[in-house]
Amino acid sequence: MIRTLSPTLLSLLLACSASVAAAQTADMVFTNASVLTMNDDNPTAEAVAVTGNQITYVGDAAGAEALVGDNTEVFDLGGDTLLPGFVSGHDHIVASGWTSRGVSLMGIESLEDAKAAVKEYADANPDEELILGFGFNQVSYGGWPTKEDLDEVVPDRPVFILDFTIHDVWMNSKAFEVGEVSPDEEDQVPGVMFWQRDAEGNQTGIGIEFQWASAFRAAGAWDPAGEIPDIQRDLYAQSVKTGITAVHVPLLAMPTVTDLPLVKEDEKLALAHLHELEKAGDLTIRTFVATGFKDPTANAEDIVSHTLELREQYDSDMLRVWGIKIHPEGNWSSKTAWMLADYADGSNTRGAAAIEGPMITSVYLEANKNGLPVGTHVDGSQTVRNTVNAILTSRGAGYDVPNNLLHHYFWVSDEDHQAVIDNEIMVNTTPLFHVDWESQDVNALDLLGRARVEATYGRYSSLMALDHNVSLSADVPSSPIDLIAPLLNVEIAMTLQDPMNPDSKPFPLSRKPATLMQSLKGVTIYPAAQQDMQDKIGSIEVGKYADLVVLDTDITTVAPRDISDIKVLGTVMDGRFTHREGL
Known about the structure:
Elements: H1 7-24, E1 28-31, E2 34-36, E3 44-45, E4 47-51, E5 54-59, H2 61-65, E6 73-76, E7 81-84, E8 86-88, E9 103-104, H3 111-124, E10 131-136, H4 138-141, H5 147-153, E11 159-163, E12 169-171, H6 173-178, E13 194-197, E14 203-208, H7 213-218, H8 224-240, E15 244-250, H9 260-280, E16 286-293, H10 300-313, E17 319-326, H11 357-369, E18 374-378, H12 381-396, E19 405-408, H13 414-422, E20 426-429, H14 440-448, H15 450-456, H16 460-465, E21 470-472, H17 486-495, H18 516-521, H19 525-530, E22 548-551, E23 568-573, E24 576-580
Parallel strand pairs: 1-6, 2-7, 8-15, 9-10, 10-11, 15-16, 16-17, 17-18, 18-19, 19-20, 20-21
Antiparallel strand pairs: 1-4, 2-3, 4-5, 7-22, 11-12, 12-14, 13-14, 22-23, 23-24
């Protein structure tokens, strides 16, 4: 028997059908693209569809066309590349803008030119009570500068100039006076955080590894409540233009870093600010923060308790307290990183650490027991050894935290390198710091010698050859914010050369460059896994968050030395554009 539908019932069914059709159309479709998904099971595609904040289609152009409705925004990329949103594995971009104020000495290669630049800046800014700056490089100057050098050009106002690593400071006599530094002030940790002194015991004008921080604050150079909102806004605005959609912030990098009570207050202030942005829908980068542990007087229980308290408040896919960052030493370039053997420059020192093996182990045990991962700054080979042992001790105690991290990975012995491989310990590094940028090659050879450079330096690339989990990042502010682009470090990993220097030579000679896909994984899926977000970001797959980057060319056709010149046309985070230029 044939039955006819009543007009009312027919209208209802048609309305229902239209609503299903509407639900099947996408908000955005990217088509005719070279899609590199970072998903090994489905590595390439032609088109991607986005509905709301999720990826809803990955496949060929014909399949995507069926998802186009009246309100769908369609982007025909003409063969250009679409990638997962870039995930930074290590950039201090929430509060570190204080490190790039004042006069820039980046790239200046002589002491006289540096002094002239400071004087020119001071003369041009007579109303500034403090003269600040950054970027001095003692290697380029042929030795460390002194307070008398600064006194010659600015005798009447305090001057604080950060070095290019942002760990050491060059001060004039007025800065010592205004910063309330007495001539016999004790070093916070001898050999790690200290005032440089001459043969007679007089302070030369250089504070090493944040020894200077209290003087900096006493001089009025740090106002967290007033500065953090502007710093965060400006650094995020620059970062999204490079395709960054998520960032791991391994401690907030503030001039309170060696004083845990002050660090706690600044962390609470910064996180509250980020949370307000999240609630308002104005947080443009997924942000995963590690609390900082650099105060040698602190203990594991205290820092873990503090971190857990913050984690309870901030634990979303947009803003999360990730875990803890241990910063036990300084930089190898100033011989404040702890080595297994003496530096080779005749100084009869192997460096030192403010936080040694037993304390590192206690933090990993206490944090991992509570489900918190830990990352450690490992400049020196002895600190690598201590941290690898700590991670393995924690695993041996039954604590399964796969995303404990080694940060930097500069100097690594055969034994520890093999342990990292065998135990699949995750690594973050900054390729820029391993090449001849800012005379790093000269300093490495001078301080450690050719044999140790070739045997133990820059071994991250050999991990990448094994498809080991290695993330690549800029480590802002130890590299300037204008070098934060993930594609810059992709190029360096593929060439072992400085992209800004056409005459740069590969360094070290014994390393093999990474491939394009290995390098791209280092800025996408691998750092996503380090944040335990690999199921939600880091690759282009249906059901994941719509975090995407549109490039202005097909990256697979570009010569390695030209990778960093590729322009980012669009950055999509959580289904919305955070940067759009040329689309």
